Each structure stands twice: as C-alpha cells, then as structure tokens.
Amino acid sequence: xxxxxxxxxxxxxxxxxxxxxxxxxxxxxxxxxxxxxxxxxxxxxxxxxxxxxxxxxxxxxxxxxxxxxxxxxxxxxxxxxxxxxxxxxxxxxxxxxxxxxxxxxxxxxxxxxxxxxxxxxxxxxxxxxxxxxxxxxxxxxxxxxxxxxxxxxxxxxxxxxxxxxxxxxxxxxxxxxxxxxxxxxxxxxxxxxxxxxxxxxxxxxxxxxxxxxxxxxxxxxxxxxxxxxxxxxxxxxxxxxxxxxxxxxxxxxxx
Length: 255
What we know:
This protein is α/β, with parallel strands linked by helices. The chain has helices spanning about 20-30, 45-50, 55-70, 115-120, 140-155, 225; strands at about 5, 75-80, 85-95, 100-105, 105-110, 125-130, 135, 180-185, 190-200, 215, 230-235, 245-250, 250-255. The radius of gyration is 18 Å and the shape is globular.
C-alpha cells in the first residue's frame, strides 16, 4: 500500500528539522543511566570494574522509566494487531505528541558499494536510505554477528561508541525497536514516518554508547573528520495515544 506526501519544491523531505531531532536525542540520552559518569577523571581500572558490575536488566528498567519521564511516553514490542503481522510496536504509556522522535531504526550501516548479499538473504529488516545507504536491522543470525563484531572493533577500551543491547532482551535505549514497526494498511494508516539524520561529528562521546547503529567498514583517518553516522528515526505524524500500535509507510512516493 503506497501513500503520497507532498514536499514543497526547494524543501528537504523532513517532518521536523535536524536540530529538533538532535535536541530530542541529546535530551533523552542525557537522562539515561551511565556506568561511568562523564565528569569523572578517566581511570581505566575503575571504568573496567564499573563495566563488569553492570546489571543490564536494571539499566533497561531505569532507562525505560527515564524515557517516560523525559518524553511523556514509552514504547514496547508486542504481538501486532495486524493479521499475520508478527511483532509490532505499541505506545505502552503516555501520549506521543505530533512531531516527536518515537523510535530509532537500529542496525549496521552499509555504503552502496559494500557487500551485503549474504546478510540480505531472507532478511526483511534492511532499510534503504534515499542515497542508497543500507541499514540492516535484523537482530538474528549473520546480521547479529556482524553488528556485534563491528561494535567490538570500534570500542575504545571499556567505552562503547554504539549500543548493541538492541540485540538482546535488555535494551539500553528503549526506543531502538523501529525495525519492528509494521507497514500501514487502508484501515490503519501510518502514524509515524521515517526520517534520515546524520549524527554531527561533535556529538558527545559519552552519549554515543546509546546510538544503535555502527558502520560496517572500519574507520580510516579521513573518516574521523568526514564520515557522519547515519541514523533513521521514526517521527510521529499525529498525536498517538497509549495502546495504539505504530504504523509506518514502507513505500512512500514523495512529490
């Protein structure tokens, strides 16, 4: 089922401005639990000990509570209301105002020239950005192994530069479930839409641990100053109440 959305000539296809997306992300991440406080003087021994003593289930619970307090709503996965819809995403508490960042589309980020054939076999979780960049949001099999491998590759000592907890049952970022949002139908029109966002190079290092995306290819010296991480967020197109399932538009014709 396709839908059309009109974008005025000369305007980018954005539901909300990039600075609004950034402000929302920074505000949310700043309220999340951190195993090592950014104002502390870095001591690797202390950081490794703090990392080893983390309780993932407790952190997931605390960050879910923080999400509700900061955003005024929470979202979770559950059985879809669509026949044969599998897993869906629901607003479980509060109300989502129009124009809010509701979820992130997690996964490994591939440039158009990078190999993704084997990962793509039987994989319905690959998101294609407008410039051909791909995001593999599959949390199982080879896709899961690749994300974990890339995450460990980019890790700086005890400090993660991305969030791999979306591959587990204990989500450090409770909004990193956007890959499970189902497509709209004629009876259930979309209430969220995808929006691409590039993470600025000066994004705080201590908050990168909550970004649920990682590059497939390793960084080069040039990348450190030129390559911005691609995110895809889901933005509400109307107010969404508690108990409602989120529906997006898999096929949108922009005109």
